[in-house]
Amino acid sequence: MTEPLTIYGDPGSGNCLKVKWVAAHLGIPAVWRDVDVPGGGTRRPEFLTLNPAGRVPVVVLPDGAVLSESNAIILYLAEGSALVPAEPLPRARMLQWMFWEQYSHEPYIAVRRYQLHYLGRAPEDLDPKLAERGTDALRLMEATLARSAFMAGETLTLADVALVAYTRMAHEGGFDLAGFPAIRAWVGRVEGELGIGPYAGPA
Ligand SMILES: N[C@@H](CCC(=O)N[C@@H](CS)C(=O)NCC(=O)O)C(=O)O
Questions:
Q1: DSSP 3-state helix, strand, coil percentages of the chain (rounded to 5)?
Q2: Which domain holds residue 66?
Q3: What residue's CA is closest to ligand 1, atom 11?
Q4: pTM for the predicted model, two decimal places
Q5: What are phi and psi of 14, to 5 degrees?
Q6: Helix or strand run (H / E) with residue 59
């Protein structure tokens, strides 16, 4: 790829940052276009023409093809790279964690963060399931990372990119990582490998 692709994203969104990080890590030229999610940018008619699902991230490839869903986008970008294991079982293990991220991690940790941090809702007004299920997700990650350096084994894969996105911001969702030492060490390893530095608020 020599022509840049365009990433439509909100810099406060972990789902969008996944795409930015993978493109940068792999040296894929990319132009970032801000879409203001809290300001309703994903619901404007011109954006809905691009992605009728009304969500970021969205990528427009150099040939004009449009792709959405963060984990589908990063898989497309990283095919053939060291971020995607070539062998079927390690590849499936990576995908296992990427699907898990979308169904069992992001809907609790990212959603609680959005409600607290962006919508300014009080913790007592939130569905308690968000904290319970988010903590369950962190416990499973902690147990996994006590056994291996990365989520799908001993090397960085897209599973780590997908999961680090909201785990490193989990404190903004009211999740205290103090009791999860293996996760904290892993966040540092992944940030180091991606060259993104420690989380210091929306980029
Ligand atoms: N499963 C999607 C989730 C995308 C998503 O929920 N994006 C949020 C920002 S993180 C969004 O665009 N929300 C805008 C809206 O719901 O109007 C992905 O991984 O890309």
A1: 55, 10, 35
A2: 5-78
A3: 55
A4: 0.97
A5: -60, -40
A6: strand 58-60
